[in-house]
Amino acid sequence: MRRLFVPLALMGLIFVWVDPASAVSISFIESTNETTNVGVTTVGLSNVVVVPPLTAEIAAVTGTFSGVSNTERIFALIGLTEPGTGLLSDIVSVTILPTVAGVTSITATFLSDSEAALLPPPLLVFTASIPETGLDQVVFSRTFGSVDVTVTARSDITPVPEPSMGILVGTMGLIGMGGALWRRSRRR
To answer: What is the model's pTM?
Structure first.
């Protein structure tokens, strides 16, 4: 029993001195209904302000978090593209300001297309370009000390059926019609 006391005591001291990890997350969820506003959820933020959208295709949120010392201004511009075409469908921007008086500010925006592809903003370069999946996708992730900051987006992707599925359905329809005509001709 004494042999275990020293290692357990050391582990206890290590766990006491380790800062607790925390997380900050912002999620944008776009509905397939073009008239429903983009949903916004946040975790770990204080002073959260969700900016009322001008249209159903735009969402913006701002907030603060503490426990880090960030000295740089971070700006990320992420483009979500339609699978298969590569056309720009959604734009997510994330801005994190340097820490002032122990508080770090973050602003994230989500801009979606309305049936037509978006045009890239002039003179801006995308940090990343990600094909849409229709599922929650991490578009921004950064760790500041013990605080993980993550922004996710779920776009309203409309699945495009594969050509092989159309051939299969068409072939099955022709076989079914042929069988019905064959049975009809045998009855006469």
So the answer is: 0.70
Q: What is the DSSP string of the chain?
A: -HHHHHHHHHHHHHHHHSPPPEEEEEEEE--SSTTSPPEEEEES-EEEEEEPPSSTTEEEEEEEEES----S-EEEEEEEE-TTT--EEEEEEEEEPPPBTTEEEEEEEEEE-BSBPPPPPTT---SEEEE--SS-EEEEEEEETTEEEEEEEE--PPPPPPHHHHHHHHHHHHHHHHHHHHHHHHH-
Amino acid at 32: T
| pLDDT, tens digit (0-9, with 9 covering 90-100), for 114-127 | 666 677 766 678 88
